[in-house]
Amino acid sequence: MSWLTVETPLPSGPMHIAVTPLGVVAGGYLGDEAGELPRCTDEAKIAAVNGRIGTYLAGRSRELGLPIDWSLSTGPHRAVLQTLLREVPYGRTITYGELAARSGVFEDVAEPGLAARTVGQMMAANPVPLLVPCHRVVAADGIGGFGGGRVGIDVKRWLLTLEGVLEPTLDWNGPL
Questions:
Q1: CA 24, CA 135: separation in Å to the nearest integer?
Q2: Which residue in the list 134, 138, 159, 162 is annotated as catalytic?
Q3: Phi, psi torsion values for 49, nearest 5 degrees
Q4: Of 19 and 172, which is predicted with more confidence?
Q5: Which residue from 37, 55, 101, 110 could staple onto 61, CB 3.0 to 4.6 Å apart?
Q6: pLDDT tens for residues 72-90?
Q7: What are phi and psi of 109, to 5 degrees?
Q8: HSE (CB half, 13 Å, CA atoms) of 137?
Q9: How do residues 149-165 score in pLDDT, each as one tens digit?
Q10: Whole-number mean pLDDT of the chain?
Q11: Residue 120: per-residue pLDDT
């Protein structure tokens, strides 16, 4: 696994992306420094990741088209993430509860709200945010949460505005 930094217009600043021979394995918002982690030196991977994320965040593409290495998610977590990726396209949202139901993972859960809360925790632990669009998962009564506190919510709003789910505000700094 090696890391690269992608400059973004997101309120959180750059993203840090980890790649393997299989694809993107991890990523993060909030400009966390990669520090001592091994740096990616594969120019083709660097160009592909920077180009595709840049094109997406500029509003010139609706698909990232990067391969995903699923090795950091297993079992029910992977099933829920793959359901999200497969069934919730650009410009659409789904509630935590709806995603729980569609995934089929929580069929035996009887406690009201438990499946939805668990999906929320799974979204917070998504190893490949943006590629697996956890920003598209919202609460039944509003936008819901997003890792990173206030900055995280700003990122979620920015991405949902980019995708046309939310109307741009006066301070919108994304593509028109």
A1: 18
A2: 134
A3: -65, -50
A4: 19
A5: 55
A6: 999 999 999 999 999 999 9
A7: -85, 120
A8: 31
A9: 778 899 999 999 999 99
A10: 93
A11: 95
With beta carbons less than 8 A apart as the criterion, state whether 87 and 102 touch: yes
Identity of the residue numbered 58: A
Contacts of 110 (CB under 8 A, 6+ apart): none
For residue 171, what pLDDT is reported? 84
Contact between 64 and 130 under an 8 Å Cβ cutoff? The reply is: yes
Active site residue 134: yes
Cα separation, 123 vs 32, in Å, equals 19
Nearest to 173, CA basis, from 2, 6, 3, 12: 12
C-alpha to C-alpha distance for 5 and 105, rounded to whole angstroms: 34
Nearest of 69, 70, 66 to residue 51 by alpha carbon: 66
